[in-house]
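Example record

The entry below shows one chain as it appears in the dataset: sequence first, then structure tokens.
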Amino acid sequence: KEECYRSGICRIRRIRLIT
């Protein structure tokens, strides 16, 4: 599941991507 926060942090499974 992909969870993106308004903080600009998207968490994909165990990988967190900062956009």
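Notes for this example: Residues 3 and 11 are 5 Å apart (CA to CA). The radius of gyration is 7 Å.
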